[in-house]
Design goal:
245 residues, alpha/beta, Rossmann fold, 6-stranded mixed sheet, 4-stranded antiparallel sheet, 10 strands, 27% strand, globular
Amino acid sequence: MIWSLKKTTAEVAPAPIPPGPVVGLRNLEKYFDTAAGRSYVLRQITTDINPGDFVTIMGPSGAGKSTLLSILGMLDAAWNGEFNFRGTPIHNLTTKERLAINRKHIGFVFQAYHLLDDLTVAENLDVPLSYRDVPRAERAALVADTLDRFQIVGKKDLYPRQLSGGQQQLVGVARAVIARPSVILADEPTGNLHSSQAREIMELFRRLNAEGVTIIQVTHSDENARYGRRIIELRDGWIVDDKVL
């Protein structure tokens, strides 16, 4: 079964997107100083990602893919260069300011799901709304609509351990989009799923992208990459290819 997206009646209004790229990187680098010398993880990363893009970051293990995604999600502040997000210079912000932008504009989907084990499905969906200070009554309406939209109303009182891997990832995607983020960052989102579940999740991403959500995914899967519109290939921390599909 391919999960479909229903229209919701209550939504968090997305912030208007300023003109220009959603993400702009200029000479971004990350390195570690070791006894053997400086070891680079990312080298002179310069690229733009525009509103509505569906970008795939690929490359061999150790190429810097997940590190770049972590920087884009503002979870990693130990880097050099320029990073502009929706026109805001992230490189000039404090950790607290970056975290505020993260919570307001970015949704994450992880390979390992990262649902909170002691919370039900409905409670997991409520978490990102609580970070945005959405009133309780409005949060309840948004959770109810999202459960309906993703066709998981029957799972709302279950805990993650009571769900299959595909169901957990579906909840993870629902949690990522419930607060209407500007960007979804997905790190190997189908890595723990069998092939039919993986296709269902990728079809869901395609539908979300068609609604205007910007998606940046890291994957080793050529099949998953074909759901997007552009592939950025990393090798040894460098961008070695950037092509439009």
